[in-house]
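To the team - alpha-L-arabinofuranose complex, inputs and output below.
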Amino acid sequence: MTLTATMVVDKSFKIGEIDKRIYGSFIEHLGRAVYEGIYEPGHPDEDEQGFRKDVIRLVQELQVPLVRYPGGNFVSGYNWEDGVGPVSERPKRLDLAWRTTETNEIGTNEFVDWAKKVGAEVNMAVNLGSRGVDAARNLVEYCNHPSGSYWSDLRISHGYKDPHNIKTWCLGNEMDGPWQIGQKTAEEYGRVAAEAGKVMKLVDPSIELVACGSSNSKMATFADWEATVLDHTYDYVDYISLHTYYGNRDDDLANYLAQSMDMDEFIRSVIAIADYVKAKKRSKKTIHLSFDEWNVWFHSNEADRQITPWSVAPPLLEDIYTFEDALLVGSMLITLLKHADRVKIACLAQLVNVIAPIMTEKGGPAWKQAIFYPYMHASVYGRGVALQAQISSPKYDSKDFTDVPYLDAAVVHLEEAEEVTIFAVNKHQTESLNLQCDMRSFEGYHVLEHIVLEHENMKATNQGREQVTPHHNGDSAIDQGRLTANLAKLSWNVIRLGKK
Ligand code: AHR
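Output:
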């Protein structure tokens, strides 16, 4: 049996311009993300600063435009001053968030250097857990003020004459979480975030600020937290953050793949709350969304309980991703694209070794996890304008969701290159989907390629051997503006159309 799904796409039905920063990622001082991840002095492929060139190449392949740093939970106990100046004088500190030892060999300046090498901008987080307004405004001055003040001159004395000009800043991290160093109520956080934001913008009015939303939508404080925090911070901030992680703990594939619907609902709810506060304040300003932590995270939970406390860079959160995880990551990327008008920043959490698309072996190679591919495809081909596709698909019910469309799809138009890309996941476990797409406004377009990620074994990984890799033999054709594509059961598809 072949099931049919239909789609109507027109170049004038636009969701909005895609901000390339939705393909951002995240490096936290956590586990082997920094040490043995991006930085490994003595590695055969190190550069002059000890950064791994093989990792740099893989990050470049992903075309990551922005990297959030240095946390995460880590930032809520971090003294940024520990990570600048001569390395030999930097203190070793207990990192209470992950119960490890932080050597501070890498800090702000080295990370900015690394980000330049991979071609990304830094999204810097300040500590509003154990610290506050003063440390935050000093860090902005250290990073962004040209010269002639205490902190900017200190940066210059550390060998960085030009300011880093970091544009986006996170006001703390997950401040509602009981696990957070310096957890706060919405009132407490709202006040300190407003004051920190105000003062940081006094130092550099060109920066953009992200206020912390709830740690996830299942927090008891969710919704009230966002409303209260925005009530306090509305005039100072530009974005509110969202975080979510999914897992397949019950090994229920249908339900697992449906979780992108939860992400969609989460985004819609936060938009509604932000616009409620806008209405209440009679404001002309619109707050956008920064989905600055999203991914699959569950495989490593048990292993992490066995880690010896206070080790340096132990293997924490090292999820080894399966093919089914790659499908959900694809659906999550599609969900972000469907909200391109409001989600302006998003960070796949994280980038190297820690719940990451890139893994490294100490002294050995770096390799691509299964989730590397949908992330790379979206980042490379998902630039331009997100189009509002009219989709009609057969549906299914799962344990927690009803009316889950088997077809999940997003369409992107890159006008200047005359290219259109359809990203599509078929969630059906036994049947292929026959996609019929009306694309009559794209006259003269033909199929450039149809990339497919599929695998017989849902639990296949790339550890030890690359098993989950895309092929280019997808089956699609366009005739007089009608695209027909065969989407294999349980597959991620990238159908690229163009005029050339
Ligand atoms: O990304 C891992 C952790 O998940 C981050 O440190 C924290 O913000 C979240 O709980």
